[in-house]
Each structure stands twice: as C-alpha cells, then as structure tokens.
Amino acid sequence: MTGVPVAPGVAVGSAVFHESWDVDIPVRFVPAGEVPAEQARLDQALDETKASLAETQQRIASEVGERDSRIFAVQGLLVDDPSFREALRERIRANGVNAEVAVRDEVAEWSERLANVAASTDRDPAADLRDVGRRIVRTLAGHEADEAAAPAAAAGRERIILVTKEFLPSDAVHVDRSRLAAIVTASGGVASHAAILARNLGIPAVTGVDVSRLPARGGSWVVDGSAGRVILEPGEEDVRDARKREQAYQAFRASLEEDSRGFAQTKGGASIELLVNVEAFEELQPAVLEGLPGVGLYRTEFLFMNRPYFPSEEEQYDTYRSVLEAVGDREVTFRTIDVGGDKPLPYLKVPPEPNPVLGWRGIRLSLEWPDMFYSQVRALLRASAHGNMRMLFPMITAIEELRRAREIVAEIQSDLKTHGVPFDENIAVGAMIEVPAAALATASMASEADFISIGTNDLAQYALAVDRNNARVADLYQPLHPGVLRLLRLIIEAAHAAETPVCLCGEMAGDPEATIVLLGLGLRSFSMSPYFLPIVRRVIGAVDLAESRKLAQKVFELESTTEIRALLRERTLELVPELSALFDHET
C-alpha cells in the first residue's frame, strides 16, 4: 500500500487496528431547570481538561523538549477560550442537551467549516479542536486518561504498528511509545501536530492510506515512513532489510544531532544560506536558529485560522513584533495571508468555486478584500520598526498584481509617515513564484521585486497537474520531473540576471536528493522545515560547486524522472553514504 510519508524511518511490527478511541456519547434531554447544573458540570470538566493538558505539557517537555510540549499549551488555550466556553454553555441552554452532546456538536460544526482547509493544506486546522473535544468528553465520562493504551495490550509485548483513521496529539502521549514501532493513518497532514510529534519522537508514519481496505488480520508489517509505503505481507528478506535500515536510520539521526549547528559550507568552502520555514513561532525551538541568518518563510495565515473572527491589526502587530524581537538581528520573511479558494477561512464567506485551487486565493483575494489586506500590511509595517523584516506576496501570477500590491504598501507607508508612526522605510518586498506562468515571466518579476521566493510545492503541483495531498496520485507528484527542473533553472537564471536575491522555500529545499542539482542550478539560499536542516547541511558539506554544476548539466540530458532521481540518489549516497538510511531501496 502506498500513502503520503509524514515521518521518516523504517519499522517492523505487529499491526494493531483501532477504529476509534472516542467514548460513547450519551444523549439526554436537559430541562430548563437543570440547565445551570449541567453548565456547571461542563465548567468543571473544562477546568479538569485544562489541568490535564498542563500536566501533559510538563511531561512532554521533560521527554522531548519545550517546543513539542507547546502543542498542549495551544490546546489549553482552546479549552480556556471564552467564546468556545460560552458557545458550549449556550448549546446546553438553547438545545436542552447534555454537556457531551454540546461538545460533540460544537466541535463537529467547526470541523465542517474548516474541512476545505484540512483538505488542501499540510496541516488540518481542526485536528487540535477534535482532540480537545475528545479530551473533554472523556473527562465528562469519567475516564479521560489512557484509553489509547488499549490497542497495545492486544499484541502482547511485541512492537506494534498502530493502524487508525486519525492520530491526534493526545494519542501520541497516551500510547505506550516504547512499543510503538510505526503509525499508519487514513488522514493527517505532514505538518499536523501529531506528525510533528511522530517525527520528533522518531516514530515512522504514513498517512493517506485507506485503512478500511486493509486486512484486519494483523501479523508483521513493514512501514517505510520515508517512501510512504506499507508492506502487508513482507518476506524474510523484506524484514531483514527493514530491520537493517531501521538501525541505520537511528544511528544516522543520532549522528546528525552532533552536526546540526553552524552556517552551511560546501566542500570547497562556499557559504550557502540555510533558513527555516515557520507556521507558529512558539513551536520553533530557539536552538534551531543558532548559526542561521533567519526565517525564510513565516506563514502568517495560521494566525487567521483556528478562530471565529479576523485577528485585529493590534493583535497581528503584537504577534509580528514579538517574532522579530525574539530573533534579534536575524531576518524574517513574512508571507502575507495565503488563503481563499480551496483554503477558506470559516468566517470569510466566498462563493463556491468549481475549481478552487485555480480560483480566488492568495494575492488575488487580498487585492479584492482590501480591509483584510490593508490591516495586515499596516500591522507588518508597524512591526518592521522592531527588527529585520521582509514582506512576501504569495501566488503572484501577473506583474500587475505585484505592482498593485507594492502600491498598497506605498500608500500605507505614506499614511504611517503622516501620522508619525515608525516603520522600516527600506523594507524589502518580494514575489513568490509558484505559478508556471509567473515562472516563465520571472525576468519581469525580478526587475520589480526586491527578492524572489520559489514555492516549489504549488509550482510542481500546478506544473504536473497533481494534487500532492491526494494519495491516489501521490506517485505523480515528482518535483524532480524534467519539466519542473527546467522551470526552476529559468527562475534562478532570470533572478541572477536581474541581480535579485532568490530563495527556494518549498519542501524541495529539504530534499537531500535535490540539494546537489539545486546547487548546480545556482541556488544559494534554501529555506525548509527545521527537521531537514541537519540533513541538507550534511549534503552541502560534502559537495563541490563545480561538481554540482556538472551534475546539473548531466541531469538535463536525461529524459525521465526515474533516471534523474536514480542519478541524484547514486551521487548523493556516494558523497554521504549514511543517507541510505533515509531512502527506499527502489529507484
């Protein structure tokens, strides 16, 4: 079975199925006279859940660090949110239902509103809300804790592969992790909180697998979290190979921990800029920034999600300012809000679209929804007085969009200056190239933008006509496709010709197989998930730029993605043999 890889590594274990860890929800009518008592019962459960989350946060902090423990601090804020609490109390009063039903229905309503966001991004914004709802219902039922440990008992003392519809953060906490070999799920994006926990706990995971079609007969399985593959009936050779790769991967990750700091340099001593991508700054471990010049992509849209209304200008200003103050002199590239079309906000009503991925989204929405855009740009400009900021516009398709966006920035700068509000008058404004037509027009974009950022996730998706989060066509999503590489070469060359800085901030930046060819194309700035920094740094340190240019030339002589990946993998493993622990053995 093939799915979407979310946490790398290889594991062998006994498959254990578990459809749901939810408790049965009683449904009963609550007369008006009993409403206050039921609301008080709800309030008590909310307080107990909040306390339980605080305890979980402390435990996870001691086991895997402060950064991952903040996941549960975020959930605690959801439980404590006044609007969430009041909505639950109102459901009890207005509908005459018990607290369990009120929690179930409120969470279901918000999950439905956010369904389109979940379907089109790497993170399901409703996952934490569902997890919180489940915790509250467990508390109301009197057994909040450890139901997730139940599946482990079914397999005796063997290491288990947990097969379930969805894996949430609390599941990662409650399951016996000493015996958890791997996770296979039907849903959950690569940037979900559960996926982040799985990676940092070293648990291989694959999602996008139709678990309902898997034979529920258990037995030993092999899960390859690097390739997104599940082997249901492995032969003896499959098992031996998997165990060998599992040991090699663990040794490799341990060695990377000793080599995860400092500016990246090639074998010949050339400096390469490595940056990090950030969605929620509170989840970024401060030590990650050591030796790095800054944040190459800060996705501001996550400030707008998981809430029932737009964040105010002041709230945005406080968030952006706190990020800049936290990083000191380091540079942070804030991408303006990238929602709309297939990523709607639940409180922003837009007409339904037959093809939302190609519709009203990114800068298109911002330019036609000035209240939202002006508020964000004002907040960003005001915050720019407190640090080293760059502003990036997403989904630029035509030069007219870039010009209009820059005009709006200039208008707001003029207004701020008139009112004596400080801001960085030299702030750099950039264009994100993620549409093939924009890639072909990079020369004109680079002549008017202060910098160029390449979003390979959408660029490859649009160029290949493949939804990268759709497991059915996941095999067709190949950023190393010859056509995609030619687009990248065109972008980089056009940016260099205009003497405009260019950075690649898509997932491809963290692909060790792509590192050498990207260097050979002239890329000198990579921004990626913190997880991949030490891996890419290791590859960069082993390659010579002259050699990378020769390899890039050879790549463009090949006709298929299979040939290109085989060549790049072969050369990458020659330079860094220990990377074999990351790769599937098929090419």
Commentary on this structure:
The protein is of the alpha/beta class. It folds into 3 domains: 4-20 and 147-233, Glucose Oxidase, domain 1, CATH 3.50.30.10; 32-141, Enzyme I, Chain A, domain 2 (Orthogonal Bundle), CATH 1.10.274.10; 257-431 and 503-581, Alpha-Beta Barrel (TIM Barrel), CATH 3.20.20.60. 47% of the residues lie in helices and 14% in strands. The chain has 22 helices and 16 strands. It has helices spanning 35-64, 66-80, 82-95, 99-113, 115-120, 127-141, 150-153, 169-174, 193-200, 236-257, 313-327, 362-368, 370-383, 399-418, 436-440, 442-448, 456-464, 482-497, 512-520, 533-542, 545-555, 561-575, and strands spanning 4-7, 10-17, 160-166, 180-187, 205-207, 220-224, 229-231, 264-265, 271-278, 294-299, 331-335, 388-393, 428-433, 451-454, 502-504, 525-528. Strands 8, 9, 10, 11, 12, 13, 14, 15 and 16 form a 9-stranded mixed beta sheet that branches. Strand 3, helix 8 and strand 4 (180-187) form a beta-alpha-beta unit. Helix 1 (35-64) packs antiparallel against helix 2 (66-80) and helix 1 packs antiparallel against helix 3 (82-95). The longest helix is centred in the N-terminal third of the chain and has 30 residues, at 35-64. Residues 117-122 and 145-155 have low confidence and may be disordered.
